[in-house]
Design brief:
The structure is a homotetramer. Chain A has about 375 residues and is α/β, with parallel strands linked by helices. The model of chain A has no long low-confidence stretch (mean pLDDT about 95).
Chain lengths: ~375, ~375, ~375, ~375
């Protein structure tokens, strides 16, 4: 693991998600750029001292030098964006599979290099667009694919947070600091941090790909150097259109993701803050509350594979992360054994999604501040 | 009453709303362009035969000829859009006050003429943007005005319906027919029918006025001659921005209006389908469910004036209409008596809102189909 | 109208409900025991001075003396419980139909006398158990009757309020005063005021009748002379059982009624504070949100008869009252014309329900304080 | 681990909960009474062959014979009720700490023996009343304890499931079989399986203890040998009262737990199916939605200790289990080191709760079928 020291947030989520299924062990790590934090964190995670490293470079070299059955099987990179590309590229070069948080890199250019390296090595890279890990999102994807709501016409996706309402990054000591520093986070603020999640959900669930967009990016909190609010009209390759809304200045909102897709015959809605229900809406009959884990024969096998407990026992954010880790682990293991992973196992975001994510950010940034040009084609590689 | 025959929908709502408060009697009407329906409808409403008319022209002439204490005090016009301007203008010319459904006219040009006539005569015209009649919307307006959520930054308003998912207008015999005929409805389809409601809510609640917008209008159902889906980025004069979303092809949605306003200190949310709650959201403390009718001292007098029953006893759509009618009636009576109506009484949409509504439609239609120009200034009179 | 002065709560609801449908006019009244309030109230309701009375006895005599086409058709009694029996009995004796608020009388003995008088005269008496007037409750009734959820097994009904958490009756000047005075309200406090509503809903919806019960009544607020909390296990004649819970000391609750019925094949749930949805639950498929007013062909005609607006436009408490008034009016008119009212028109609570309601109160009061006897048979007339 | 083979439900939950925090490893187990399932399950959990056992007796002997630093630190028992007492008692005799699922034993007699053994050995026993592990339940407990809602007056707790609506136990091959067999489950059906959870929540949150109760137990599904529906009026030692409702025949319900506590100044409500919100209700101000994980300073440290992710990222059932495991692990470790565990660490149900749980079942069973005696004192040890 690179990052995830005891002072970090998302690292602990990754750790729990990885461990929960008993398919993954934490064997080594460089948990912080601060050597003391790395060591104390590693010890608190029960990692032996000789495998707690103080730089990721050292970690990769030493792990690569270990016998195959001892060295780590993959590395998880949970650092701020600017420390994504370097470790990921080096890990791939040394033959390690990679799990990496989104957005994948600091720039599209870096993303393309990573993609080429993955293609070249045949290794596996998973990108933790965690919201696509929820069972109800998977159920939505499968239902759309099999035509339950008819031809898709409109996608509405919103992601509202309020934690950046004030410029708390100026106080320091929190997750807002690097996210609002373009050198560490990249060109996008809100659009990179949560806009990419919203975009990914829309493409994941519908199976469509954005081709052009009209956007407005705003710096709502005075003086903030990156956007904290972004919205866009989206056109997709399959002929339908969408509206994307992401904001981090919606005062009082927590992590309010809401996805709706409307087709010719029906519609569906999912809300992340109560993630175990998928609402199906119809022209000619009452709306249905499709509940994850429920024993009735109304859920796809694809969904059941990603569900742990019976209906009424809520699953949450960590379980959603764990779905990505488990599917990634099964895929890595299958490929290591020369086998072909199943469709269920391959169901996690990859380096290709990472490239599209960076294209999304760059297209949004180009379009979002331009008062003159209305529509922007998707930035192509 | 002009329109509102037994075959119509909104006329019955107007009637109930007007009668509920025992301040208004139904004394005469031309209830349909079809004389038979007008007569049978009038009789079923207990209107005496001699005051059931078969044309509105006849009605206005004959009523105007009655002694002052007998003739109608005002006329309600609840016909399709193209029959708004004519009756309204004639009523004003003859000295009658007017209640009219939205959008006010078929074109901005007509709207401006009506406005001039109202200004000239000093008569009162109420426009039934019913959603601004809900107590919780009024509470939101007052709270924003007194600074509860700080300076406003973002307004999100959406209005989703699904009843036009299919081209039911082709079947005939329903409310969709005239709404999808530009000759009867005007240039806007969805943008006129429900987009104007969404826009009005945003301006009513925040007290801001849209100055420019970037829009996309779509004809989602194949072959439909008017838009059935419209969305826009909005810029307001007070420095904040907004996102408006209106659609009539959101399959399975009924009348899903959701308004959110976020300020520097807090946010608020209101949903029409459960209209008796206003959600207040905060940076530094739990969200609150502010309930209409509740006895705690947390509601403004402005709101209480528009509430009929104690908390927990739901009020709905008809009561919201009745608030407009009651306030209109109080205002007309006060003005007739040479008195100045109170702020509470004057709280209903007027001819000025009607003009702005037509400007909204015309700006949206201009902006919504133009692939090249991003921002459109508000169409000025 | 007897009662309903400008200082009362429920009278205004009755008035609006009666007027909304344009089937009923307010022609006379004795609006208060205080003559001044009666007169000023009557004038504010536009009742002519000669038909504003200062005692109900006077009103009934004078109205009875008017020509048939002039005198009132029925009287609405909206006074505290102890003033129910007298006016109702006298009205029936003089040939007037009656609408009366619940509980019908101060004692079972009075109730039986009223029932005998109704049977003797053939007049119509409606009891405003308003919650059975909601469309979704009617839909529930019809669905159960036609077997949608299979044989009924369990009924859970709760009615929670918090307004009597403190002994506000001691402050005076509010609706709590007479409700907590056994001389004015009768033996039951909470059990009479809201427990009867809960009981009535259970019988109305299931079609079953309580045969015996085990109850606990409590005076939670110290020193209160009547119960403010009541719960009971119920046994019904049709073989199923139920649980009833009513409280007025559930701090912070408004008017939280929740009804659930479970059968062998399905279950249903309704909540008064969002009254336009009926939730249907199933063993083998997703739960459904059955929405009132929705155009899909999934609602019974019985329900549609009691619905005013399309789905998504909320109806509320006053509309529910209006359903009782309208059905009563249709029934009275049909009977006056020698016709047989339809099943839809006859759908309002009658004097028979009023008798059962008093039996409920008396059985609960007997059972609720007895530490020794577990089960009480329904008090028979 | 005893039980939890690949064919079981709750074992997998325990495993994930135990592993998630990286404080516990799965080192050995007897995962099934079927040796083949035990071995294949153990292997799939990556337990070495030499520590996969085919009887729990063998496991305990062999583990006890291992050097202290190698042998298991505690055992988790996740078998049907009748296999609780034997392994638990033997584990304690051999010096192992114990985690055990509820209800603790088959009878009160067994429970008392276990309690005596725990007291005698000073070992730690945790009982997985998982619902008390939710952060919002802990917040409720602390708020009540510090007087936020004033003196408690009424507790309403309900637990509704529908999965036993039909007699699926007759089909075999599912979790319903042993639960509906008194020899395997004990005297209580519903009352033992879920009634105990409801009772425990009520005592945990309020800090009160039931002293007497009036109950009705029913066998709603025809022919079922144990109760599938139970309700009770409860009297607590601290002077307040409650209503408990548990059912497994509420067709279509999943795992619907709802807890409400009302005091003199406020009330609170929690619902397990959306567990991350605690609703606070007040006489004199709007209800609040207190959200777990939210950064505002409105949550107790006690709650924060049991929360993993920021507000808006839902936690669920497995995290709640993990709270019990983590607190248990911290306590065991502290005690092993001769230290005193903190209040937070000691916050898990113990053998004393297990005894009370069996008392609850036995009291309910005695009271629930007796038509003559109304109130039953709590069965004392």
């Amino acid at each position: 693991m690179v990052g995830g020291g005891s002072d970090a947030f998302i690292g602990a989520v990754h750790r729990r998600a990885a461990l929960m299924e008993n398919e993954i062990e934490l064997v080594c790590g460089c948990f912080s750029v601060n050597p003391e934090i790395s060591i104390s964190s590693g010890r608190s995670y029960y990692v032996p001292d000789n495998r707690i490293y103080t730089t990721w470079e050292e970690m990769f070299e030493k792990e690569a030098a270990l016998p195959a059955e001892e060295r780590m099987d993959f590395v998880t990179i949970v650092t701020p964006n600017r420390f994504h590309f370097g470790p990921a590229m080096r890990a791939l070069e040394l033959g390690f599979n990679v799990v990496i948080d989104k957005p994948m890199t600091l720039s599209l250019e870096e993303a393309l290099k990573l993609r080429d390296k993955v293609r070249e090595t045949g290794l596996t890279l998973a990108l933790t667009h965690v919201y696509s890990g929820y069972p109800a999102v998977k159920e939505a994807k499968k239902r759309i694919a099999r035509g339950d709501i008819g031809r898709v016409r409109r996608v509405f996706v919103e992601y509202s947070q309020g934690w950046l309402t004030q410029r708390i990054e100026l106080k320091g000591g929190n997750n807002a600091v690097w996210r609002n520093d373009p050198k560490q986070a990249g060109k996008g603020g809100c659009v990179g941090d949560i806009g990419t999640h919203a975009w990914h959900l829309a493409e994941y669930v519908t199976g469509g790909r954005v081709t052009e967009l009209c956007a407005e990016l705003q710096h709502v909190a005075e003086g903030r150097p990156v956007d904290d609010d972004a919205c866009a009209f989206l056109h997709f390759d399959k002929g339908f259109t969408g509206l994307l809304q992401a904001t981090q200045v919606a005062t009082g909102e927590e992590n309010n993701i809401r996805l709706r897709v409307y087709g010719e015959k029906g519609g569906l809605e999912w809300r992340q803050m109560e993630p175990n229900t998928l609402y199906m809406k119809w022209i000619d009959r009452p709306a249905e509350e499709v509940r994850m884990g429920n024993g009735y024969g109304f859920l796809t096998d694809f969904t059941k594979h990603n569900t742990r407990v019976p209906g009424g026992h809520p699953e949450g954010f960590i379980e959603s992360f764990a779905n990505i880790y488990r599917n990634f682990a099964y895929t890595v293991r299958a490929r290591s054994a020369g086998e072909t992973p199943s469709e269920e196992w391959l169901d996690f975001p990859t380096v290709e999604d990472g490239v599209r994510g960076m294209q999304f950010i760059e297209t949004m940034v180009a379009a979002g501040y331009d008062r003159d040009q209305k529509w922007y084609k998707w930035v192509e590689e």
